[in-house]
Protein: ATP-binding cassette domain-containing protein
Amino acid sequence: MIKRNYIKNISVKNLINKYPFIESYLEEQDLPIKNKDKTLTEIYQNLSLEEREEIMYDLDGFVDQLIAYIKNMEEFLGTTEDRVTSLTLLPGLNKEGKEENFDEITIEAGEIVSIVGPTGSGKSRLLADIEWTAQGDTPTSRHTLIDGQVPDKKWRLSGNKKLVAQLSQNMNFVMDLSVKDFIRLHGESRLVKNLDEIVARIIQEANELAGEKFPADAQITSLSGGQSRALMIADTAILSSSPIVLIDEIENAGIDREKALDLLVGEDKIVLMATHDPILALMADKRIIINNGGIVEQIETTNEEKELLKELKVIDNKLYNYRENLRYGKQLERFSDSDKKALIC
Structure:
């Protein structure tokens, strides 16, 4: 199901990239879309009262009509995707055979959930249960639901319909291709039509995430760890059809973590993220606590924690600048009075 808020708050540029056929539709509505970096919400807010009466009197109504148009066009073109709007976990058993301490955990598309717990606590098993769409037939006896229903067997049996895309800490490329050719090969395997645009967008987004930019003709085996992760995150967000993404310890990736999450969520994925980083944990909508093989608690991120997140980002930005200065041989300086004030405030 396409969510109204998703359509309202994604840039027109990204909307057209995802649904190329809507560009002519928006033009026929006389919508001012010269600046495609704006969202529909921003465009609506800038319309005069006269323009609203003629073009978009009610934003929600306009978006609902657009969603209906997208669905009709996808059915006509035969490009309807298997979308997942929610993933639900039902309790199983921990390593001692005791029932997990929750009734139900539901994660909606566009949500970020962090998974925290000691090494060996069962994070990988949770991922495996989700990937296998467990129905009480795994060591934890957990059950999963997709969109509130017992999952279709296609998620287990079809090689073309992977439910989960995983981004691990370590990755090695065994093919010696250029970045452009590598992404193109992936796109061709998925029968992508506007391949040149998609390849260019993935490389552009990856360079936005990476600490150091790389050209499209760079050999993929020459990329640094951070560049490789940035490329795979952009590829997963834009090209992968898997509706659920698991990221393992993105804090060690050497990339812009916030942009990476924004990119994944912007593509309406369900993102589960194993992490020990408090910034990433608080950027999530909720966090799942695992211990002794079982889920012991789920915690919604509170408003107070969101305020703490702002303070942690100030510290993190300062540390980032220190790392950059070290990298380029610069002298490190003590906190200025404005830095201290920012930390205190």
